[in-house]
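pasting for the record
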Amino acid sequence: MSILQNWDQWKDFLGDRLHHAQNDGMNKGVIGDLAFQIGDYLSNQVEPKNDQERILADLWSVASEEEQHAIANIMVKLVQNNGSDR
C-alpha cells in the first residue's frame, strides 16, 4: 500500500521529512517554499488517494498562489508533531 493511500501514514512520512530538514539546518522559509512546491507538484501530477487528499486538492485548485502558500505552511504545522523524530 502506498503512503498516499493512508492519511496518518502520509502525515508521519511528511513529519519525518520535516524533522530531517530541520535537523539539517533548513530554515522555516525554505521549508515553506518546498512545501509549496510539493503541494503544487502533487496537485498537478498525483491523483488524490483518500478523502483528505481530495479536500486538499480541491482547496488547492481554487486557491490563489498566496493562499496555496498558506495551505502549504498549514500542512507544515500539521505534521510538526508527526513522524518518528518527534
